[in-house]
Specification:
By secondary structure, the chain is mostly beta strands. It has one domain: Porin (Beta Barrel). It contains one helix and nine strands; from the N terminus they run H-E-E-E-E-E-E-E-E-E. It has an eight-stranded antiparallel β-barrel. The relative contact order is 0.21. This is Outer membrane protein beta-barrel domain-containing protein. It comes from Algoriphagus locisalis.
Length: about 170
């Protein structure tokens, strides 16, 4: 699901924005929460940057996600945890030709899970989602343009926590 979103959205945005805009780009970031962020960028002629991204937090889920625990499934618990998936919208501006400052809003879901041991499943078990919550957050990033098409940045988001990443403007 999470990869299909970008597989569908990326070509649509690429064609649409490249026909009207100055530059289109992509960004990747890792965060201290154990999450990875991917984003599509659009820069207009006045150095405004608009971004649409998705963040997924990696978790230690065991095996397959099952919708409900059947009576013949293993019942031995083997840890639990949480992970989140968000959609991120942002706006930024380039200052003094080299500095980028952008803000973002994030909305998504946070899932709590329980792992169970059962050797009939790949990975030695399965996991169940025990609760789902809606999460909302905001963030601020600051970056430096090393070249016209390459930016490194660092920032903080209330969901992802501290993050660092890179952005490439394709054309």
């Amino acid at each position: 699901m999470r990869y299909k979103f970008f597989a569908i959205l990326a070509p649509i945005m690429f064609v649409f924005l490249s026909s009207f805009g100055q530059k289109v780009g992509i960004g990747l970031a890792g965060a201290s929460s154990g999450s990875m962020n991917m984003e599509l960028l659009y820069m207009d002629k006045t150095k405004n940057i608009f971004k649409l991204g998705m963040t997924y937090q990696f978790a230690d889920t065991r095996g397959k996600l099952v919708p409900e625990q059947l009576s013949n499934y293993g019942k031995t618990q083997d840890g639990n945890g949480e992970y989140f998936l968000t959609i991120d919208f942002g706006y930024g501006k380039i200052f003094k030709e080299k500095f980028l400052l952008d803000i973002e809003l994030s909305a998504g879901s946070e899932n709590s899970f329980q792992n169970y041991i059962d050797n009939r499943f790949n990975g030695g078990g399965y996991h169940l989602i025990t609760s789902k919550n809606t999460v909302l957050g905001a963030g601020l990033d600051a970056g430096y343009l090393f070249k016209e098409n390459f930016t490194a940045f660092a920032g903080f988001n209330t969901i992802r926590k501290a993050q660092v990443g890179i952005r490439f403007f394709l054309f």
